[in-house]
Amino acid sequence: MKNTRTHTINKSFTNRFLIDALRETSKRLDQEDVQYQWGHMGQCNAGHLIQTLTGMSSLEIVESVDFQLDEWSEHAIDYCSCTGNKVDDIFLFIEKHGLSHSDIVQLENLSDRKVLGNLNGGFRYLERNRREHVVEYMLSFADLLESS
Fold first, then answer.
1. Rounded CA gap, 61 and 42, in Å?
2. Rounded CA gap, 70 and 147, in Å?
3. Are 37 and 120 a contacting pair, CB within 8 Å?
4. What pLDDT tens digit does each residue of the chain (148 aa) get?
5. In Å, how far are 16, 30, 138 from 33, measured between CA atoms?
6. Number of C-alpha atoms within 13 angstroms, CB side, residue 51?
7. What distance in Å separates the CA atoms of residue 67 and residue 53, rounded to the nearest whole number?
8. Which 3 state secondary structure label does DSSP give 30?
9. 64, 93, 121, 147: which has the highest count of C-beta atoms within 10 A?
10. CA-to-CA distance for 82 and 109, rounded, in angstroms?
């Protein structure tokens, strides 16, 4: 099986960047006037984090996948660093900042058991298309990274 984790020289910088991005994204998603749609590549769980990490807009993210509105989990499975597709650049960038393919899939589905076990109040399942659950998940993920 292919190892999808990328190793960086300065892991503490990478973790700090990702932690800050998770917190910034959760703060933005906590605002009611921010567009959130789980089925939209640029406005879903991963889409919002990718906006923060890359500085891309929702539209730019959708353009980067040539308007193929698959789920991020599907793009993560199909990803290959040598195809030259614009979405590949996004995956290369987010890998350099500490997110693996499985992290993206788990973020989309709010399914990482370690993150869920780290939630305030203890382990519980979250619904992937509920904004407040995405906020909780991202904050728990940031806390988990910060404590490691």
1. 5
2. 33
3. no
4. 334 444 434 566 678 999 999 999 999 999 999 999 988 888 999 999 999 999 999 998 888 776 555 555 554 444 444 444 566 778 788 888 889 888 988 999 999 999 999 999 999 999 999 999 999 999 999 999 999 8
5. 27, 9, 19
6. 23
7. 20
8. coil
9. 64
10. 27
Place of tokens 């407040």: 132
Tokens of 126: 């979250």
**Cβ(138)–Cβ(26) under 8 Å?**
yes
How far apart are the C-alpha atoms of 135 and 121, rounded to whole Å?
A: 15
Name the amino acid, one letter, at 6.
Answer: T
Task: Tell me how far apart the alpha carbons of residues 23 and 21 are, in angstroms, rounded to a whole number.
Answer: 5
Q: What is the residue type of 79?
A: Y
- The dihedral built from the CA positions of residue 58, 60, 64 and 66, taken in this order, carries a sign that is positive
